[in-house]
């Protein structure tokens, strides 16, 4: 019997190749720590090392590694410079842009990240869901639904990027890079951005989840409780 096929883990891939390197850049770029140059080197090692691992294991090129390298090079490379407010806005917008691209790209790569974020197997009864997709038409409609959700999530990230850039321009415009006022303005922009961008983005994601559940109910004939609670007896059989 052949060994079971290794299952993709798009959220773990994204965490290792994009999110963690970005955290490294933010937390270790200060002069009293690694400094911007060495922080960039350490951050680059994560997506680069993972990409090499995928090639050695014959899994082929991993687009998350490519995405991570591009994101780290842009944000880290700009971080090495004394940025004006305009270029700092570009830097702050870069990460949500690259993260947004991950959703449609992962869909076309046949490892849709949306299934990890919105249809996590710990929440959704995947075995019941897959068994309910018992016709070619249903499978096609489900695939189309994943594509729509992927582009919707990409759109929310692009809105986040634009909002983040505008906040940077608002708080940093007129300040001189490297000064105390510049550093204080960055601090204000960070926590204000978390409130005025983070919470609306979370709300938009939850609305998208409920939209997907309604579409899945209509597609499969299952109740929401059946979809969200593995092991619950199906209340309404498909096709009734």
TrEMBL record:
Membrane-spanning parts: 37-56, 63-81, 93-109, 149-171, 191-213
Q: Which UniProt keywords apply?
A: Membrane, Transmembrane, Transmembrane helix
Is Nucleus given among the entry's keywords?
no
Keyword presence, Transmembrane: yes
Source taxon at top rank: Bacteria
User: What name goes with this protein?
Assistant: MFS transporter
Please name the source species. Answer: Prosthecobacter debontii
